[in-house]
Specification:
Layout (H helix, E strand, L loop, with lengths): L12 E3 L19 E3 L26 H5 L2 H6 L11 E5 L20 H6 L10 H6 L4 H24 L4 E7 L4 E9 L4 E14 L2 H9 L12 E13 L6 E12 L5 E12 L5 H16 L5 H12 L1 E2 L4 E2 L3 E8 L4 H13 L1 H12 L6 H20 L2 H7 L6 H4 L20 H10 L7
Amino acid sequence: MALHLGRLSAGSCRRAARGGRGGLCAWPGRCTAARICRPPGAAGTEQCRGLGHIPTAGGGPRLGTGLTAALAGLAGLAGLAAAAFGHVERAEMVPRSSGARSPSSGRPEEDDELTRRCSCFMAPPVTDLRELRRRPSDMKTKMELLILETQAQVCQALAQVDGGARFCVDRWERKEGGGGISCVLQDGHVFEKAGVSISVVHGNLSEEAAKQMRSRGKILKTKDGKLPFSAMGVSSVIHPKNPHAPTIHFNYRYFEVEEADGNKQWWFGGGCDLTPTYLNQDDAVHFHRTLKEACDQHGPDLYPKFKKWCDDYFFIVHRGERRGIGGIFFDDLDSPSKEEVFRFVQSCAQAVVPSYIPLVKKHRDDSFTPQEKLWQQLRRGRYVEFNLLYDRGTKFGLFTPGSRIESILMSLPLTARWEYMHSPPENSKEAEILEVLRHPRDWVH
């Protein structure tokens, strides 16, 4: 059975009981009690085949990540947090004028399905609801609602685990077109820093962006030097406090370019990967098996292909090691059809919470020594090195006009450490994880 992010109707939301942990209030003034979106887990029945065909040779990561993942730059990689008892802290960067208006009171649209779905989100959609109603079957509408649902579901799960942190819900606009919603947590009970951000942006691609696309085989026809595009995605990086609880990163995105002759090119990208401080075999198997089950709904060849791609992409060249123990990673996914690839991305997004949250619950109260905390800080230094030196989304965003720097750098941990010539003792737990990072393993066979 294929995994799906079922529609969030009125019946999909439940009111948080008074005194309940981790309540999330969606839009200010929209509800008197905290709304909680249904946790992921609904299964669909459709199955699609033939995904994963990438037209370019080599099968390795390409500069597409620098563009579509640089929604992290154009739009913001940012964050989320956990909220206790429904408390939400909101930072409005710009007036909510253009795309976020909800229907006026008394209009028939007030109680339609779209409004009910949106009532479970962390904030109103970036695109005006009237525009979303006009094009319900358009992939841009479907993807925007998917990333908003994913953001809300992950926020709920983190809030319940943390039990006491406060969200900062930061809605922002991009003057070149579009905007986003960043949910940010720092110094929670369980999470040191966590972020889940969505972005929906549009405009004209810069010449540098067009060159990068052409460099990986895309033929793009500009008109008067302009190339209209639309891009949207959800990005998240979560850093727990306990060194025995792993860090996770995920990103799912959609990109659409309109050429001079009206032809539209489209593709999806994304992935999910785990970065533990210490190796726990059961955790690694659980994480990879959950992702494999999501991929297998759409073809048996997808997980091994995208697992290898992930191992190759998150490689810290100057250290000779991976950032973490991998997961899945893909880009430029544009076959066999738009709907089939979208359903695959739904399945991957659906797998985030069940792949990760059980690991945090398992380890959040583990005891640890000062030496283990020190090792966590050193490993986070490696995380910073990869993100600033190699991650194409981060690099592209930093050099893209209109980028939101705070959101780009939200992926970095709150604290990290570097020590000169540090090397763990042989046969230690620290040496064990290094061996895995240097020589990736097959965790599910």
